[in-house]
Amino acid sequence: MAWAQFRLERRLFWRSPTAAFFNFVLPLLLLVLVASVFSSDAKELDVLVPGIAGMSVMATTFNALAFNLTALRELGILKRVQGTPMPAASYLAGLLGSAVANAFVQIALVVVIGHLAYGVDWPHNWAALAGFTALGVTCFGSLGIAFSHAIPSSDAAPAYVNAVFLPVIFISGVFYSSDDLPAFLDGVARALPLKHVIDGLSGAIVGGSVDMAGAAGVVVAWTALGVLLAVRGFRWE
Amino acid sequence: MAALAIEVSDLHKSYGPLDAVRGVSFTVERGEVFGLLGPNGAGKTTTVEILEGYRHRSRGDVRVLGHDPERRERRWQERIGIVLQSCGFHPMITVREAVEHFGKAYPSPRDPRETIELVGLEGKAGARTKELSGGQRRRLDLALALVGDPELIFLDEPTTGFDPAARRTAWAVIRRLKELGKTVLLTTHYLDEAQSLSDRVAIIKDGAIVAEGPPGELGAERPRYRVSYTANGKRVEHETEDPTELLHRLTGEALARGLRLEGLQVSRPTLEDVYLQLTTEDERA
Fold it and tell me: For residue A73, what pLDDT is reported?
């Protein structure tokens, strides 16, 4: 049933061109624009490619699921599903799976474009890249579901989501190295998961001295919180 | 198999200080179409949503197909079909995809094509739901409730917003369900709908049932017949339990005086009369 739901979600996803645009084209556009400005500097690109990859993980899971679940709740689709024998876990797994598929496609696009267009090396450790992507999508997916409970309506969803997304991507080192941040903002970024997802992706793509275990630990802790809140606060209507 | 599809006894539901349902009891037999009538806010939907497993009751006992709906067992959910009052679709999904997809949740679903034909949407099977009219969306609601081939179907105001022709079509579908031996719990505020479809109805008001019985016999404790005619340009009305005796007396007197009883009419109160009488008593008192 989860598989059937996943396949349906994939088909429906491609029928909404604007959703596809925001999922795939916007992060790539940012990559191309920012990279074009700094293209002379290989060091900047080594920050930017993992940064955009991390941002993509958050956008395709956290943002997409917070929007989707709010809309599904408001349309009464969740309530309809609740009245059928379809297990809630299968239904949510189908939705989450679809978001995860988008995240993996997006990461692949970022890595391939980074390599072909800007000469960034192929990822240093493919297994770590897949592993950190998986950790990141689980974390942001669960947080997205949890966050949808706090969003009152579809109209309010973009404001709620962007109020979290935009500040987080700015302080987490998506576009520039976060080492130069004021200590206070750096502290905030370190407490949140995106910076650690980006660190992990950076370790996998670029290599270098990254505390992979420490980064994974913070992401796992946020995942636990996300799952707890997603399940506890779940509202069908 | 138990003979009763639904048993409700002394059901109560409060939302904070508000008592939405206060002591509702009724039973629905298998194969019966049972109508729940009442003004908006009377507690119809709250009652039905408790039976469907959406809400927890505050007090009382409820059995639906022999199960407690609060437990929401999957095996039980496979045996019921639900048409909610308002409930959407993914705008991009087509009618056929929706019916096929929801069918997958049930162990022995109906054929999706046949289900779409049953509700009269065969001309729209390939259309996306955002292209459907209000009445067509409602018919898709019905198709999704029927695709699992349930024994018991809840219909919460299934024809609201339908034009008269579409309502007749929906009524034909509901009659067909009865022929197939299904049990139907129908809420509606269209009295002709309840009268024409239901084997029995209950009228609910302020969270309690004020009358229950076959639609033709409802309000039996009140005068059953109304006899009216025009005399000297004025309409005269009598209410009586025994129209035979009254008519004999009236016609006898008229004949003796050489008068005609213009526009003589004998009528029984319709469900609508009973309903209005019962649900507006407070305002008239």
Answer: 93
| Predicted local confidence at residue B285, as pLDDT | 40
pLDDT digits (tens, 9 = 90+) for B93-140: 999 999 999 999 999 999 999 999 988 899 999 999 999 988 889 899
Of A121, A137, A3, A151, give the one whose Cα is nearest residue A61.
Answer: A137
User: CB pairs below 8 Å between A and B: how many?
Assistant: 59
Question: Structural domain tally of chain A?
Answer: 1
Chain B: closest CA distance from residue A24 (Å): 20
- How confident is the model over B204-236, as pLDDT tens digits? 989 999 889 898 777 655 667 888 888 778 888
Verify whether the Cβ–Cβ distance B101 to A4 is below 8 Å. Answer: yes
In a domain, A42, yes or no: yes
The H or E element spanning position A193 is helix A193-205
Q: Is A85 on the interface with B (CB under 8 A)?
A: yes
Mutate to test the interface with A, among B104, B142, B154, B155 (most CBs of A within 10 A): B104
Of A4, A8, A80, the CB nearest to B84: A80
Examine the predicted complex and report whether its ipTM is higher than 0.90: no
How much is the pTM?
A: 0.83
**Residues 148-167 in B contacting A (C-alpha not used; CB under 8 Å):** 148
Q: Which of A77, A86, A87 lies closest to B88 in CB terms?
A: A77
Domain B4-217 matching CATH 3.20.20.105: the answer reads no
Tokens of A139: 């974390």
**Which of B84, B112, B20 lies closest to A82, judged by CA?**
B84
Residues 61..80 of A with a Cβ closer than 8 Å to B: which? 75-77, 79-80
CA separation for the pair B140, B119 (Å, rounded): 7
The answer to whether the Cβ–Cβ distance between A82 and B148 falls below 8 Å is: no
How many angstroms separate the Cα of A208 from the Cα of each of A124, A153, A201? Answer: 9, 44, 11
**pLDDT tens by residue, B156-185:** 988 877 788 888 888 998 999 999 899 999
The answer as to whether A60 is a domain residue is yes
Residue A237, domain member (yes or no): no
DSSP reduced 3-state for B197: helix
Residue A84: closest C-alpha in chain B? B77
Domain containing A79: what range? 2-232
- Round the average pLDDT of chain B to a whole number and report it: 88
Comparing alpha-carbon positions, the chain A residue that sits nearest to B80 is A84
pLDDT in tens, A122-143: 998 899 999 999 999 999 999 9
Closest CA to B114 of B161, B68, B176, B55: B176
Find the closest chain B residue to A80 by CA distance. B87
